[in-house]
Amino acid sequence: MNVPTPGDIDNVSPAVVCRSLLLALEASEGRRRRRMRDTQPDAIGLAIKRDLLTRAVAEAPASEDFGTWLLAESLRPRPEAGSGAVRAMALDILMEWRLAQSVGSFRRWLEAGAPSDDREGRQA
Question: Helical H runs in the chain?
Fold first, then answer.
């Protein structure tokens, strides 16, 4: 399986975008850990999203099949998460992929590795 690299973001394939979104997820995790409240629900959502993104990178669905692929993934039984949470994260990923297709600044941010001061190991 030939998975494109982030330098190929111009083709805006789901695998490329999802690989970059995994980097952006690190910043979300950093922000979550600094919150002064119970963040267990956030951690569950991030874990579901990370799993979907990782699977999309590994399976590299075609652009024209990505929505169908996400739907199938959200319908797949998962003992660790309810179907509503998985569907919500799948819709979030679909929206971010479409955003990368249509908004050049978002696409460039992803191509740059989704830089954020909130990423673990960086000073805020």
Answer: 14-34, 40-59, 66-75, 83-102, 104-111
